[in-house]
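Consider this one:
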Amino acid sequence: MVGVKFDLPALLASNSPWETIGGLLAAAFGVKLIGSLVFRLAFGWRETFAAGTLLSARLAQMGRKVRTMTELPVGENGNAPSRAQLSECLRKAGIEQAQTVIAMADTDEDNLQICRVAREVHAVRKLLAWVRDPAYNARFRAADVRIVNPAYAKLLPFPAF
């Protein structure tokens, strides 16, 4: 947790310090491993947790701060969000400091919209998106977005940034 002052004497003086410490440790590991569940679509549990742990450790070594946006805003009448709504949501997630945006929303159309707003409004240069339907590949390539799909993992090497 960035920006939080850890006060050990106050923690130990509380009624249940060991429960709190256990909860904090579980949350710290959970946050690192939840993101790795996307690997489960293509790999077994052992490889999934190994990949998540290694990815998290490698990003930390590289000095990268990882921010997540867990929900897209909802547009009027349940439609897709407007560019302004999406831009505000990305801003709240900390896009101003982002060097790279990885879009992994539920639909390819949402991922494409996230990438377009990230590039056109917030000037993020490096964009990756999980593309489920190969019919969308040309649209993402035209927008200069790198495509990620676990089905392609065994076929193509992943390009370095």
Summary: The two ends are 27 Å apart (CA to CA). The CA atoms of residues 79 and 114 lie 15 Å apart. The chain has a mean pLDDT of 76. The beta strands are 100-103, 126-130, 146-148.
